[in-house]
Structure formats: C-alpha cells, structure tokens
Design a protein that fits this description.
The protein has 443 residues and is α/β, with parallel strands linked by helices. The chain has three domains: 2-104, Probable tRNA modification gtpase trme, domain 1 (Gyrase A, domain 2); 127-204 and 375-436, tRNA modification GTPase MnmE domain 2 (Four Helix Bundle (Hemerythrin (Met), subunit A)), CATH 1.20.120; 211-369, Rossmann fold (3-Layer(aba) Sandwich), CATH 3.40.50. Helices cover 44% and strands 17% of the residues. It contains 15 helices and twelve strands. It has helices at 25-33, 85-96, 108-115, 121-132, 136-146, 149-173, 181-202, 207-213, 227-235, 278-293, 311-315, 354-365, 380-401, 405-423, 429-436; strands spanning 2-6, 13-22, 44-49, 56-65, 76-83, 101-103, 215-220, 253-259, 262-268, 296-301, 320-324, 344-345. The strands form two sheets. The chain has a six-stranded mixed β-sheet with strand order 3-4-5-2-1-6. A hairpin with a 6-residue loop joins strand 1 and strand 2 (13-22). Helix 4 (121-132) packs antiparallel against helix 5, helix 6 (149-173) packs antiparallel against helix 7 (181-202) and helix 6 runs antiparallel to helix 14.
Length: 443
C-alpha cells in the first residue's frame, strides 16, 4: 500500500508539501512528471501533470528518497508546489485515482518510520511535541528528547535488567551448579541500584509533563466576582461570556497562554455558591475538582463575599493567590483577617494592579519548570510504565531474598517489559493507535 498526504499546513500558502510513501511511490511520481526520477535527495524542478493526460497541474520541486534511506524507511517522495487550494486539490485528486494508494491517517508516516526501525517511540512522541510546541521551553524539551538521551538511559537500564535476568535464569536452569558468590551478590546490588535510579527519575515533580501540557491555573471564587473578566483580561481576548447575571459560567472554559515564555493553561470555572439548579451544581463540582488538580489557584473574591466558613477556608494554601476584585467600588469595610494571606487588591474594570498579579504568577512559575534530572518524563504512559517497573522490582527483590527464583524471574521479566514499552522494545501495538492519533495528517 502507498500513502499520501499534504504535509504542510492547510490553506493558502507560498509553498505546499505533498508527501508520498510506499511500494508504488516510484511509479506514481513517474506518471506525474512523465520523466525519469531525479537523483536521490536532490531537489529538482519538474513539471507535474495529470496522470492520464499531459495536462499541466503545476511546476515545482521534486525530492526522491529511495528506501531504506528515507524518513519512513520506504520509497518516499515529496512534491514542493505552489500552495494554492486548486493546485493541492488537483494533485491529491490525481493520487486518489491510483490503485492501492490512499490518503494517510494522522501520524501514519511517523508510525511507519517507527515500525521500520528508523525511530523509537520516544523520538516519535518528541516529533509530535515539536510540531505542537507553542513556547520556547516546549521546543527545547522536544529537541532534548529527540536527541536520544532519555532513550539511551531507558535502554541502558533495560540491558542491565536483562543481564540480571540471565543470571537468575542460570540459577534456575542449573540448580546443582554453584554460581560464583559475586554473581549472586551482584543480582541484589544491581537490581536495587536500578530501582533507585528509576525512583529518582520519577521524583521529578512532573516537570516534563508540566512543560508539555502547560502549567495549570484555575480561576475560582463565588458567583459574579469577576472570574470570567479576569480570564478575558489575561488572555487579551473575549474567551468567556461576561454578564452581570450570576451563574453565567456553567462549564470549565480554558485558554492556552504563553506567559513569559512558559506554557500556561488558565481555566475559568463556575461560581461557587449554594444552588438548586442541577446544571450549575455540576459546574460547581467541576470547579472544585479543577481547583484540586491545578498547579495554582487564583481565588477571586470581592469585599462583600469574603467568608472563611465556606470554600475559601478550604482552598487557601501554598498554591493559591487571593485576588480581591472590584476595589474601584471601595473596600474600607473589608474583613482584615484576609490581609494575612497577602491578597492582591485588583480592579479588573480599571486594570488596577494587574501587573502585580502577573508578577505574582511569574514568581509561582519560576521553579516549576526546573528539574535536575537529565531524563525527563513527558507523558503519563511513561510514568505509569516506570511505576510498574519499580513495583515489579520490589517484588523481585522480596522473592529473590527468599530464593523463590522462579517467581522472582517473572517479576524481573515484567519489569524489563515495562521499561521496553517506553521506547518500543516490546510488542506495543495496543498503545500505537493512541500515540500516533495525536499527530497531524501528513506527519
């Protein structure tokens, strides 16, 4: 099967890139250019025609990559043509007429590259992250993963586990033979060392995931305190509906921002109050859950709504910034108990003290994107695999100490498998669909 897709962005552009990969690539390209293929990896100007006629579609650059020296490992070609909708549509229509040639699924080119052994799963995921990067720190992290340091680390740990496993299996297969004392001793020492290394990688405060997904900020507070207005002000656009009517926001509304170079996801939530409306009650429940999961909560209140007997008392902690809004209306009678929490007195209407709030957020961000670990965990699936590996290693150590070698070996096999799943060293078909579906079509 041969696949094709527009690899550049949709819409009108100066140049569009159409990628073709598979067993029929050579014949398809020859039928389009009515000529022999150019030298490999050499951009060559060619006339591109309709397949069954000599009608000219466009004139552009052709790049020919014979397999296995290509991105996918298969025969592959790229057409760099003028980026008009008409030109793109005409070429894609011609390709669709070719037998055993179909449009690529999201991420299919990269999936084939993985299956061909050109890249491992970590690199495949980092390619997706690089395409999706919106901030400088996200770009740097994606490139760091692409460089292969994390892959090398996980592969090295896996090789060490395999070496331990071979010694354990030798003890099982040859019970009458006396293995050297240092081998038996090293099984215990090495497995504990690997477990501690993985535990150190896991103790990362989720910095890699925070960089990839964004620092989560929830704006919470009572109804009609100005939460939606604050979201719009920070986003510099109308993200949420603002109304004098309390309870306007029912669901969680998100905005992705680049704040001082850091990726931030700010959520506006339903106003917290007693309500008999079932939909609003569900929105309030979502708001409290979002506050629980957030890295930082901005609690927006107004002077008349300061109540330490309700939600406010439960949410004030080290990950909260308290904002007292509507100070343009006066706040002489404010509850002075709030002052010990160092609130920011804000007027969203007049944008008073907005800079103070942004600086306070930046201070909270400073140390949240710094990790001493060279090996970064960027996805939940990596973390789950490493946690499972640690669990199996602990089971191995316990059974090994009791000389229950058969069961201990199985725990070691499972630990090795979980490490392998991160880079794709084992059968991981069940997770490939979810990984590559996040890619754009054409990659």
């Amino acid at each position: 099967m041969t696949i094709y897709a527009l690899s550049s962005g949709a819409g009108v552009s100066g140049v569009a890139v159409i990628r073709i990969s598979g067993i029929g690539t050579k014949e398809i390209i020859q039928s389009l250019i009515k000529d022999e293929l150019p030298s490999p990896r050499l951009a060559t100007l060619k006339k591109i025609n309709k397949i069954n006629t000599s009608e000219l579609i466009d004139e552009g650059l052709l790049l020919w990559f014979p397999g296995p020296e290509s991105y996918t490992g298969e025969d592959m070609a790229e057409l760099h043509v003028h980026g008009s909708i008409a030109v793109i549509r005409s070429i894609l229509d011609e390709l669709s007429k070719v037998e055993n040639c179909r449009i690529a699924e999201p991420g299919e080119f990269t999936k084939i590259a993985f299956q061909s052994g050109k890249i491992n799963l970590l690199k495949a995921e980092s390619i997706s992250d690089l395409i999706s990067a919106e901030t400088e720190i996200q770009r740097q992290q994606a490139l760091k993963i692409m460089s292969g340091r994390s892959s090398e680390k996980f592969n090295a740990l896996r090789e060490m586990l395999l070496k331990i496993l071979s010694n354990v299996e030798a003890k099982i297969d040859f019970p009458e033979e006396d293995l050297p004392e240092d081998v038996i001793k090293n099984i215990k020492i090495d497995s504990e060392k690997i477990r501690r290394e993985i535990e150190q990688i896991l103790d990362d405060k989720k910095v890699g995931e925070r960089i990839r997904e964004g620092f989560k900020i929830a704006i919470i507070g009572p109804a009609n305190a100005g939460k939606s207005s604050l979201l719009n002000l920070l986003s510099k656009r109308d993200v949420a509906i603002v109304s004098e009517i309390a309870g306007t926001t029912r669901d969680v509304i998100e905005a992705h921002l680049n704040l001082n170079g850091y990726p931030v996801v700010i959520s506006d939530t339903a106003g917290i109050r007693e309500s008999k409306d079932e939909i609003e009650k569900k929105g309030i429940k979502l708001a409290l859950k979002r506050a629980e999961d957030a890295d930082l909560n901005i609690i927006v209140i107004e002077p008349k709504s300061i109540d330490f007997t309700g939600f406010l008392n439960d949410l004030i902690n080290e990950k909260a910034i308290i904002v007292i809004n509507k100070v343009d209306l006066g706040y002489k009678n404010i509850n002075h108990q709030i002052e010990k929490f160092n609130p920011i007195f804000l007027s969203i209407k007049n944008e008073t003290n907005l800079d103070e709030l942004i600086n306070r957020i930046k201070d909270k961000l400073k140390n949240k994107f710094v990790s001493s670990n060279e090996t970064l965990i960027t996805r939940e699936r990596h973390r789950l695999s490493l946690e499972a590996c640690v669990h199996n290693l602990k089971n191995f150590e316990e059974k090994n100490s009791k000389e229950d070698f058969d069961k201990a070996a199985e725990d070691l096999r499972l630990a090795t498998r979980h490490l392998g799943m991160i880079v794709g060293k084992v059968d991981v078909e069940e997770i490939l669909g979810s990984i590559f579906s996040d890619f754009c079509i054409g990659k």
